[in-house]
Design goal:
DNA binding, glycosyltransferase, 10 strands, toxin-antitoxin system, four-stranded mixed β-sheet, nucleotidyltransferase activity, DUF4433 domain-containing protein
Length: about 200
């Protein structure tokens, strides 16, 4: 696996990780955990995935590792380009808060940007934190007047933690939703819930 770019992300900054999902999936996630794309496709669920992106991920393999679709993925911060593309659905979405202990699970990998993007580097976790750019991973925005620079900032803003097969339920801390009307859906699934306007760009 490659390392290299970035100025490093201090592990103390990683107080939680995020997974974006439709609220209809919460009960299943609490029961089974966050599953890899390969595993979840055989189960009833509401997908919010971008099929064009999934086509790129489908046959891409992590160097010396598994296919991307064989990992469960989490973001460092869900206020990212994927969430921005789903703003019209934000009342239906939930962001799962995940304990940072997943960084130490065997076989876990860190990508320095969107795992599907060309040029993204992968490294074993937690050592891979050193190749991330902390400011860009947690940036409020990724805009830039230069088109190539904007693409690079968007890529880095979607850095991922890839866990083989699934993220077990015991690593799930709770969930965030866009407004108070969505709180009962999280609580009905047995999750601690809170409104987090920031992560939903409000």
């Amino acid at each position: 696996m490659d390392g290299g770019r970035g100025v490093g992300l201090d592990r103390s900054r990683v107080t939680e990780l995020h997974y974006i999902t439709h609220r209809a999936n919460l009960a299943s996630i609490v029961r089974l955990g966050i599953l890899s794309h390969r595993r979840v496709t055989s189960l009833p669920h509401r997908s919010i995935a971008d099929e064009e992106v999934q086509d790129r991920r489908r046959n891409k393999r992590v160097p010396n590792g598994l296919l991307i679709h064989e990992y469960a993925n989490a973001y460092f911060d869900a206020r990212n380009p994927m969430m921005y593309k789903r703003l019209d659905q934000r009342r239906e979405l939930a962001v799962i808060s995940i304990m940072p202990g997943i960084l130490d699970l065997p076989g876990t990998v860190i990508s320095d940007g969107n795992a599907a993007s060309d040029g993204t580097l992968f490294s074993a976790s937690p050592e891979g934190l050193t190749m991330l750019d902390e400011q860009r991973v947690y940036a409020e925005w990724w805009t830039d007047g230069d088109g190539m620079e904007k693409w690079e900032r968007k890529r880095q803003r979607c850095a991922e933690v890839l866990v083989p097969d699934r993220i077990a339920p015991e690593y799930i801390r709770g969930c965030y939703v866009f407004n108070s009307e969505a709180l009962p859906a999280c609580r009905a699934a047995g999750l601690k819930a809170a409104v987090n306007k920031r992560v939903f760009f409000d």
